[in-house]
Write a sequence for this structure.
């Protein structure tokens, strides 16, 4: 392609040179003809400009000298003389010779001689000769990653320069993660708006490793048509995590959107700064929103950076981590005491310290728990082996697929999950997947598949075991349950309820005991183990198509969000994840239900368990009691307590060996004031009440 | 540069007017768009701009919609946009940084057309 | 629909190179040999962008930019000037006339495409 253009240039240059010769001869006769002078200049200009474009650097350099002289003539600084015309004609011949040579040899001495002559005529600085085509801009070396705040305020008339500011924003996006906030506050009303002018200005928060010059390059054409400020707001280097996150107020001050005095005035009130700033009317909401975006952006980039750096790690014995988490647990407890003491004393100074400690503690807690988080992948690979060995033993062809192996769970949870998961998978292999011949007869591939997946969902992880086997036979389950006396022959149960019977103690549908799953431990043990992890298990199935078992497990065991309640002088905790709502229970309500323990909540009857009776707590209940309604296995059950105190961060302490088997209690915690609160095991309580009722 | 099509279905004075925009809401047609929006706001009490058939929109289009909303507020009238999730429009709103969680200081009725994103 | 770009240059070789490069980039191209030719063609057909040399006979680049901005159809299109002068005076003159940006000669095809992409989006 270059050759084509070179050839085109040569042809063009020959034409120009022929024209040039004529112009020069005419110029000799009419030395004042401005039109002729500019024609000569233009010919030289074109030869120089186009020559440099297509690699005729020698010609470009040489012609530049002649052009410079004629620029002076054009501007009236030099007169056209016979000498000049002679020299220019010689130069013209020289250019032709250079073109003829086409990159080969030519008389370089002649060039120097002509240049010397021209310079004598018109002394000038050795002005910049055209540089050879610059190498395509060298890639900027990846330098450190920096977050910039760019405020871009184009002039109103920007559209008249053919500039579309949206393209510039698009270019910024190409440089790295980018948040764009348009400020519309200065807009006039429709009546006053000139629709062809630009009223917007932008804040852009950009994280890039391309350096500030790459950003400036984006705006190179509009430098004079806008106000542009680029501030470095964070450098993401190795020390990143030691930096603090800027507060919204700091960001607004840096941007000049608010003064220090205004901020301090606002800070004396106890509220989120951003809300205050808006309410006060000092800063428009869009500016605060923009500052918030910046704050968020920096946080995200840092997190991203930290994930990337996770590869560089150190090994620490697990028990040291456990110790750390225990200590953090103690700290959370003490901090709660500090906070409540500070609140009681209404001492401002102490409160300030308590708040600071609270913030630090919660950060410390989160990061300590985070350290113990491990990807579940290692467990998954163990199962692959298990499936391989077992399917051979069973004479089945089974493949195991997994996804979400990088899902993280607390190390202790992963350990405790191992046995239940093994059991569930064995069960799928044994009862679920059919023998190859059976599968083929049913029109399925010989190969059965068991799919194991893990995925985050809120503060839990969902594990699913999906097989494409025979599925559950609801009728077989019903028959078996009746035979075993688990349900009465007349019981009307939904399919879901029937499926859930397989978790009932002493239930087994296997026709004969195989070495794989029928070892006396039933699914009830699995369910208990999952519930001990404060998890839940659910099964769905389509007959002939397969079954899906879903296990929901909380991320960590050490600390839970819970609802603190009081009965008499005793405190209890209910895991918040199970709590639906709280309603009042009056004495009238109780007497109306004639001892049936049913509450009418928005036209639905909800059974409740009076905990005061259940735990045999002496004393009189208050006039109005509270029912905390929970949802367990899709069923709503209420727990009657005296008072609901509120939500609480609970560090779980085990009760110790002596109290290990107390029914309905899963642990204990120490409250801020030093009191002990017992943590209720809701599913177990519901179960034991149900079994008593049967 | 495609054309713009502005189809107005004026209601009786004081009622709701539907303004269906299609084609290019770009600077070349900005004057026209301003004129039509102003007229709609003069007569109707509620103006609903339908953007679901818009092919192209630029900054001037976004500016006009925002200004029209303000003018409507000043007159105690209602100005709304519906877009049926039109990507041609939504992408530009997002790229231009117009998406909002809260309206501007003058949005005293929480009716900012950039808030949310789902109609 | 492919966008149309006009190249106005009195140098046939530069026009050829610009046209070739833009067509490879998927654009339609209209050529003009000087400012007068360009202005006349602009009033007849619609273009999405103009790339013009500054030194041209009949009507120079600055004159062309001013003339184009006066046409309703070209009021807001991107206009890029090709300049051998790297002096700021020419750039400023062009900007004042309404140019969007500039490319300094000599340039490579990829530099041209980068600028086209930058202003056309």
């Amino acid at each position: 392609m270059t050759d084509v253009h070179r050839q085109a240039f040569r042809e063009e240059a020959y034409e120009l040179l022929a024209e040039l010769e004529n112009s020069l001869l005419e110029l000799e006769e009419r030395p004042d003809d401005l039109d002729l002078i500019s024609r000569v200049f233009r010919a030289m200009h074109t030869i120089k400009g186009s020559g440099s474009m297509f690699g005729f650097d020698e010609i470009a350099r040489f012609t530049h000298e002649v052009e410079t002289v004629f620029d002076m003539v054009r501007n009236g600084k030099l007169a056209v003389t016979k000498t000049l015309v002679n020299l220019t004609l010689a130069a013209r011949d020289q250019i032709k010779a250079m073109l003829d040579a086409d990159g080969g040899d030519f008389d370089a001495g002649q060039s120097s001689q002509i240049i010397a002559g021209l310079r004598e005529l018109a002394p000038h600085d050795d002005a910049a000769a055209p540089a050879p085509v610059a190498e395509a801009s060298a890639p900027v070396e990846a330098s450190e990653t920096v977050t910039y705040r760019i405020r871009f305020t184009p002039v109103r008339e920007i559209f008249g320069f053919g500039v579309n500011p949206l393209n510039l924003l698009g270019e910024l996006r190409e440089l790295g993660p980018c948040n764009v906030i348009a400020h519309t506050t200065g807009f006039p009303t429709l009546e006053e708006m000139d629709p062809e002018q630009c009223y917007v200005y932008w804040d852009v928060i950009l994280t890039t490793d391309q350096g500030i010059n790459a950003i400036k390059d984006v705006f190179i054409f509009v430098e004079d048509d806008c106000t542009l400020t680029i501030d470095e707001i964070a450098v993401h280097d190795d020390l990143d995590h030691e930096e603090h996150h800027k507060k919204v107020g700091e960001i607004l001050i840096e941007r000049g959107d608010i003064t220090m005095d205004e901020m301090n005035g606002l800070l004396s009130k106890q509220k989120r700064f951003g809300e205050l700033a808006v309410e006060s009317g000092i800063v428009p909401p869009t500016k605060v929103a923009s500052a918030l975006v910046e704050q968020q952006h920096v946080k995200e980039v840092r997190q991203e950076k930290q994930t990337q750096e996770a590869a560089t790690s150190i090994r620490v014995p697990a028990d040291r981590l456990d110790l750390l988490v225990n200590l953090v647990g103690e700290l959370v407890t003490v901090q709660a005491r500090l906070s409540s003491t500070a609140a009681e004393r209404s001492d401002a100074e102490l409160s300030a310290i308590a708040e600071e400690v609270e913030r630090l503690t919660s950060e410390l807690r989160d990061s300590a728990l985070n350290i113990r988080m491990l990807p579940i992948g290692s467990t998954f690979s163990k199962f692959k082996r298990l499936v391989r060995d077992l399917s051979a033993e069973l004479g089945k062809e089974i493949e195991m697929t997994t996804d979400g192996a990088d899902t993280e769970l607390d190390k202790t949870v992963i350990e405790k999950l191992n046995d239940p998961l093994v059991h569930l998978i064995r069960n799928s292999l044994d009862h679920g997947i059919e023998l190859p011949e059976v599968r083929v007869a049913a029109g399925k591939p010989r190969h059965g598949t068991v799919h194991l997946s893990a995925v985050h969902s809120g503060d839990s992880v969902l594990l699913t075991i999906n097989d494409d086997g025979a599925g559950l036979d609801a009728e077989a389950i019903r028959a078996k349950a009746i035979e075993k006396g688990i349900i009465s022959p007349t019981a009307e149960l939904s399919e879901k309820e029937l499926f859930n019977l397989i978790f009932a103690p002493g239930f087994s549908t296997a026709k004969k005991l195989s070495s794989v799953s029928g070892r006396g431990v039933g699914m009830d043990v699995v369910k208990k183990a999952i519930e001990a992890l404060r998890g839940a298990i659910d099964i769905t199935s389509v007959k002939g198509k397969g079954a899906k078992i879903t296990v929901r497990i909380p991320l960590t065991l050490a600390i839970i969000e819970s609802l603190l309640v009081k009965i008499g002088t005793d405190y209890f905790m209910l895991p918040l994840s199970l709590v639906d709502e709280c309603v009042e229970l009056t004495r009238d309500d109780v007497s109306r239900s004639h001892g049936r323990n049913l509450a009418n909540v928005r036209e639905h009857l909800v059974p409740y368990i009076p905990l005061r009776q259940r735990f045999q707590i002496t004393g009189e209940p208050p006039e109005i009691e509270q029912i905390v309604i929970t949802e367990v296995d899709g069923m709503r059950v209420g727990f009657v307590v005296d008072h609901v105190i509120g939500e609480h961060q609970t560090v779980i302490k085990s009760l110790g060996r002596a109290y290990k088997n107390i029914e309905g209690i899963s642990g204990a915690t120490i409250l801020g004031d030093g009191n002990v609160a017992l943590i209720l095991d809701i599913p177990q309580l519901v179960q034991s009440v149900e079994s008593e009722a049967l | 540069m495609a054309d713009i099509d502005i189809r107005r279905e004026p209601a009786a004075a004081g009622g709701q007017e539907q303004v269906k925009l299609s084609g290019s809401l770009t600077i070349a047609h900005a004057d026209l768009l301003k004129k039509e929006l102003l007229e709609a706001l003069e007569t109707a009490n509620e103006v609903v701009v339908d953007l679901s058939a818009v092919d192209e929109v630029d900054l001037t289009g976004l500016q006009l919609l925002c200004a029209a909303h303000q003018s409507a507020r000043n007159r105690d009238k209602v100005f709304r946009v519906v877009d049926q999730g039109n990507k041609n429009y939504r992408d530009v709103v997002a790229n231009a940084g117009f998406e909002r969680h809260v309206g501007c200081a003058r949005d005293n009725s929480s009716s900012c057309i950039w808030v949310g994103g789902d109609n | 629909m492919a966008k149309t770009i006009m190249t106005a240059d009195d140098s046939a070789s530069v026009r050829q190179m610009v046209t070739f490069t833009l067509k490879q980039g998927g654009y339609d191209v209209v050529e003009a040999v000087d400012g007068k030719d360009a202005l006349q063609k602009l009033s007849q057909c619609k273009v999405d962008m103009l790339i013009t040399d500054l030194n041209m006979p009949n009507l120079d680049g600055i004159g062309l930019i001013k003339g184009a901005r006066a046409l309703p159809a070209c009021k807001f299109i991107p206009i890029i000037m090709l300049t051998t002068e790297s002096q700021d005076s020419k750039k400023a003159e062009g900007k004042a006339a309404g140019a969007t940006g500039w490319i300094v000669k000599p340039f490579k095809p990829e530099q041209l495409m980068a600028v086209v992409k930058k202003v056309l989006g």
User: Anything to note?
Assistant: Residues 127-141, 238-242, 510-520 of chain A have pLDDT under 50 and may be disordered.
